[in-house]
C-alpha cells in the first residue's frame, strides 16, 4: 500500500516511487480507487508494435491514387488522423473558394448590367437636353 501524504509534506520524496505508486496517488487525488491490473506499460514496445502493424498494412495493400475527396475511413495512427483532418480542411477550403469565385462572377455581371443601365440613362438625359 502507498504511504499517506498531506500537503504539509514536501512534494518530492527522497526515495523514488514506482509507476504503480504514482497511479495510486493520482487516483487518490481524484477520489477513485486504485485500479489493479494496470501494471507497468512499456510504451516504447507498444509504439514499435503499432508502427509494425502500420507497416504491415501499408505493404499488404497496393497504393491507390489519392483523391481530392476525403474518405471517412477510421485510421489507426495520429498522423493519419491528422492527415485526414487536413484533407477535409483543404476540401472545405476548395469548396469555399469555388463558391466565392461564383459570387465574384455574379457581382461582376451585376456591375456590368448597372454600367449598361447607367449609359442608357445618360443617353436619355443627353437626348432630353438636346430637345
From TrEMBL:
InterPro entries: DUF5945. Keywords: Coiled coil. The keyword Phosphoprotein does not apply. Residues 90-124 form a coiled coil. Residues 1-22, 52-77 are annotated as: Disordered. It comes from the Bacteria. Residues 61-77 have a biased composition (Polar residues). Transmembrane segments: none annotated. Pfam families: DUF5945. The keyword Acetylation does not apply. This is Chemotaxis protein. It comes from Streptococcus constellatus.
